[in-house]
Amino acid sequence: MASHYIQTKPSFSRALFKEYTDMTVLMDENTSRHCYPLLRNQLPGHSCLVLPAGELYKNLDTCQMVWQHLTDHQLDRHGIVLVLGGGVLCDLGGFCASTYKRGIAFALVPTTLLAMADASVGGKTGIDFGSYKNHVGTFSEPDAIWAATDFLKTLPAPELRSGFAEIIKHALIADVRLWKAISKKSLHEQNFPQLVRHSVKFKTAITRKDPREKGLRKILNFGHSVGHGMESLGLYAGKPLLHGDAVAAGMVMEAHIAFGKKLLSSRDLEDITTYIIRVFGKVNLPDTDSLIKVMYQDKKNKGNRILMAFPKGIGKACFDQPVSEREIRDAAAYYLKYQT
Ligand SMILES: NC(=O)c1ccc[n+]([C@@H]2O[C@H](COP(=O)([O-])OP(=O)(O)OC[C@H]3O[C@@H](n4cnc5c(N)ncnc54)[C@H](O)[C@@H]3O)[C@@H](O)[C@H]2O)c1
Ligand SMILES: [Zn+2]
Q: Going along 172-258, which residue ranges are E strands?
């Protein structure tokens, strides 16, 4: 299991890296400017590779740049890749490291709220394939994770909001007290260091119990069946949605489906919808036929059935629930009509 450090300021001890022969630091054009200066002097000798930022680059072409760099710098199987970035880079960097020479060590230094609270935890790596999200990837644990909340100071507000969606999800599926506490406050009133700690603890516990997503871990997919479908269509159209914005809309629609299945009360549905739309606004929904079509590709499905995870009352969850096209259409109509 990875060692996980949650801190305010990034701080490393060089001794931690002494077992590795060499290091490459992967960053993107934003984290190289805002984050790398905060830690460069603490790292042992290393090479750097700066990649283009954003979901549109979470693909095989970018992986080739990484593998080429590691090859040019002759990183051997005892080297380590240190990933300094958000969820896109954590997923892609972990994927490249876990496949280069059949897998070398990697460490994650998540720099977005989403990556600290979610993407850096649980050992999933991957890239998008065509317009399919996270279609190719591995389960590979990093050697270490350092989440330093000072990095959030330079994070643009929409990106902070995007990470908040995953924290809301964790509360809705596992912690009603947390949901009550966060839903009383606006985005900027939240205590992010505390929320990161809570999310890391929760996600670590779930993924330890079910690392390969055979059962329980599937509850983490609440909001993601619809959310990933929307993201895939956004990618296809060359207009990627922020992951958290898609998941937020996905949670509202999936909460409506859960209400239809008597898993949530009308009061719960109303509370979830009002809060999420107040914080995230409403996104433009793609047309429902395209959404349903792309949802049939979801990795969570079995056979030709769309399966989803839902809260079962706020603070508990269930998974592998079959969902009909009719339920998805009704949920889309509910989201579209909802007025705050
Ligand atoms: N592996 C998992 O379990 C898991 C879980 C959730 C999400 N994800 C993946 O995470 C990705 C989304 O991650 P994300 O929202 O972090 O996106 P991201 O990595 O694209 O980062 C968002 C933007 O913020 C910039 N940035 C990052 N840190 C910064 C900082 N400290 N200051 C200023 N700018 C900064 C980045 O350059 C980028 O432009 C998606 O691809 C999603 O599939 C993976
Ligand atoms: Zn997510």
A: none
